[in-house]
Amino acid sequence: QWQLVESGGGSVQPGGSLRLACEAHGFPLNNYALGWFRRPPGKEREGISCISNDGEITLLSDSAQGRFTISRDNARNMGYLHLDSLKPEDTGVYYCTITSGSQCFRTWTGFFGQGTQVTVSS
What we know:
Blueprint: E1 3-7, E2 10-12, E3 18-25, E4 34-39, E5 46-51, E6 57-59, E7 68-73, E8 78-83, E9 92-99, E10 108-112, E11 116-120
Parallel strand pairs: 2-11
Antiparallel strand pairs: 1-3, 3-8, 4-5, 4-9, 5-6, 7-8, 9-10, 9-11
């Protein structure tokens, strides 16, 4: 059974950092590009960043630029999103997903994990 499991969320103060993890179960993550999305409270899910199976990064929005860093460890079947300089507007549920192929230009599958909550407040 294919599964994506996100972890690493929590409550932090503005300016803080978190490292989110995405673990793939039941399939080889290295066959797919990996993306991170988030859903702010009361808003639609939005893309943050994508990394191809060979490490090429594509930003999906301006929100990640300079503060969020996507990475992956194919040997461990894991993906990561490092969040720095967090702001209250970064609050939301963060999800990982995959495309239908190895590159970020491929269609998103709509296959998400359960998400991990990030709350930024003072």
